[in-house]
Amino acid sequence: MSTPTAPGPAGAGTAPTAHPAVVSWVNEVAALTAPDEVVWCDGSAGEWDRLTTQLVDKGTFVRLERKPNSFWCASDPEDVARVEDRTFLCSRFQADAGPTNNWMDPVDMKTVMTEHYRGAMAGRTMYVIAFCMGPLDAAEPKFGVQITDSEYVAVSMQIMTRSGTPVWDRLTAGTDFVRCLHSVGAPLYPGQVDVPWPCDHTKYISHFPEERTIWSYGSGYGGNALLGKKCYALRIASKMARDEGWLAEHMLILKLTSPQHTVRYVAAAFPSACGKTNLAMLDPTLGGWTAETIGDDIAWLRFGDDGRLYAVNPETGFFGVAPGTGVHTNPHAMATIERGNSIFTNVALTDDGDIWWEGMTDTPPPHLTDWKRRDWTPTSGEAAAHPNSRYCTPIAQCPTVAPEWDDRAGVPISAIFFGGRRATTIPLVTESLSWRHGVFLAATLSSETTAAATGRVGVVRRDPMAMLPFLGYHVGDYFQHWLDIGETTSPELLPKIFYVNWFRRGDDDEFLWPGFGENSRVLEWALRRIEGTAEAEATPLGNLPTPGDLDLTGLKFDHTKIAAALRVDPTEWVTELRLIDEWFATIGGNRLPDVLREELATLRQRLAAAASRHAATTDPRLDLAPGGGESRWSQPRF
Ligand SMILES: Nc1nc2c(ncn2[C@@H]2O[C@H](COP(=O)(O)OP(=O)(O)OP(=O)(O)O)[C@@H](O)[C@H]2O)c(=O)[nH]1
Ligand SMILES: O=C([O-])CC(=O)C(=O)O
Ligand SMILES: [Mn+2]
């Protein structure tokens, strides 16, 4: 039932499913896109071998000599990242997409895209992939079927999702599934030679939230083409989650065990390329602590019967940022890919059949093939790997994967960390004062743009809950949903919310915090706060540690920098408040919850009071933090 069908349109006889809606949809798409052949994927090792061999034969993949069952590939130089300006939320009413999404009327979008899809798979094979986001034995497993004309997508979906025969077996007639249609938009006409990375200059990544349908056209890049990931598990799922009373979030899930063997699970939301994978594979520098990985990109959070929030990782693989990943920063990611069974996209290829990227080792190899397939030497003057180059690798291979990563019930979350990449203003860590204050911090989260999306890098923008590019409905309603979640259970059962920033810089432009494994010190302080055993100082922003409140044992790092990383600078906050005002103004008065407006007013009052206290202080050293530590107010920038 899982072998490829003979050329010709799909039919019920060849399908590994009797689900009439799947079969009729596949037939309909095949009639529109005109593939040479339809293959129902079984997700088997044999299928992986067949497709990867095919990809090697046609020049898309290079089989690596130095890593088992692993492949290098380079995309079209224009198809390297998510395309936010070509990503659409086609809700029936524009007002439901909100100010953060590109909207187009669903009927108009389908009319336009249908013409792009017409004949788009000519000369190619259409693959039909059944997949499940989250454990197969979940109370309500979340199924999807992706149609694609890309072998790269088909094999990547094998890594990233539960797919194939076990899913077909469960996808019985009447079972709900999300329709995920994908074409690279590059038909092959008779005699035409294929290119290594087919795609179209025109791209559409469209979501039809009311129909739970995704149409993606023109790109082969992960976030645009592996539709289980951002399109389903975040955009469509966030809408499902709102309707059903749960949360679909851009979060890692981490298990922490203290030296006293206390186990805690935490989740953390950072924007793309801002440190989720790295924190998910944390190698704690703090003695006696163990960190284990449950997820690195997406968390689905639901209330358990005990009133706590439980998190599940809907994925089965990591699609991680390669540059900056090395034995010193993320040894566990390096060990994961060392085990093979991985796909590397837009990194550099070494002459002996291995991969390399900036930050993997201190010294680059003397010669490489760069991500544009050109000869590269250390004097080339350009990066050998694209800044958004990625590895795609199974989570089960991660040496730090927690045994419970696949548990149907998920893991109970004690703390949620929100964070952004900010060179200024945002302190290393802030503890929220309440759920609603935490939601305010998350709703005003900001970050510098990264190479994970096309467009300018390094521009500060608001990225609420690190979900700006992934919201499946109106951002104001999303904030209200977060506030409602906080009313669903007793306050002491809710995770405590913290706000972090690993990326603050000093006047010398160097990071003020060493990051990576040292982030365990911040997590440890947060967990001690939850247990009531850590000190903190009340500031206008929330509760912050002084450097003395953090466990800095053995940390070889300039402690004045750490004090600077923890500073609340009133001048910086004058600008920040203006930016938050602007952000809230874009949301629209009737959709922005009053609670958040009130939180902003309270923050403004607290900052004003602190600034006037500071102005009245002639000797800055009089304004000392409790415990005799130097106050963060003592070095204002004005
Ligand atoms: N300075 C500093 N850099 C970090 C830290 N953690 C991660 N990074 C760098 O940030 C970049 C992206 O980190 P990732 O962990 O891959 O980001 P992510 O949030 O998983 O990204 P997506 O997969 O795009 O959602 C890499 O270049 C890392 O080296 C940190 O604690 N400090
Ligand atoms: O979706 C992708 O392509 C990769 C990713 O995790 C992100 O951009 O946040
Ligand atoms: Mn991501």
TrEMBL record:
> What pathway or pathways are given for this protein in its record?
Carbohydrate biosynthesis; gluconeogenesis
Task: State any GO CC term.
Answer: cytosol
* Residues the record lists as binding Mn(2+): 230, 250, 297
Enumerate the residue ranges of region (Disordered). 612-638
Q: Which reaction does it catalyse?
A: oxaloacetate + GTP = phosphoenolpyruvate + GDP + CO2
Instruction: List, alphabetically, the InterPro entries matched.
Output: PEP_carboxykin_GTP_CS, PEP_carboxykinase_C, PEP_carboxykinase_GTP, PEP_carboxykinase_GTP_C, PEP_carboxykinase_GTP_N, PEP_carboxykinase_N
Cofactor annotation: Mn(2+)
* Note on cofactor: Binds 1 Mn(2+) ion per subunit.
Q: State its location(s).
A: Cytoplasm
Domain named Phosphoenolpyruvate carboxykinase C-terminal P-loop is located at 246-606
Alphabetical list of PROSITE patterns matching this protein? PEPCK_GTP
Q: Which residues form the Phosphoenolpyruvate carboxykinase GTP-utilising N-terminal domain?
A: 25-242
Which residues does the annotation say bind substrate? 82, 221-223, 272, 388-390
In the Enzyme Commission scheme, what number(s) does this protein have? 4.1.1.32
The residues the record assigns to binding GTP are 273-278, 390, 421, 516-519
| Pfam families the record matches | PEPCK_GTP (PF00821), PEPCK_N (PF17297)
Q: What does this protein do?
A: Catalyzes the conversion of oxaloacetate (OAA) to phosphoenolpyruvate (PEP), the rate-limiting step in the metabolic pathway that produces glucose from lactate and other precursors derived from the citric acid cycle.
Listed under subunit, the entry gives: Monomer.
Q: Which family does it belong to?
A: Belongs to the phosphoenolpyruvate carboxykinase [GTP] family.
What this protein is called in its record is Phosphoenolpyruvate carboxykinase [GTP]
Classification lineage = Bacteria, Bacillati, Actinomycetota, Actinomycetes, Mycobacteriales
Q: Which gene encodes it?
A: pckG
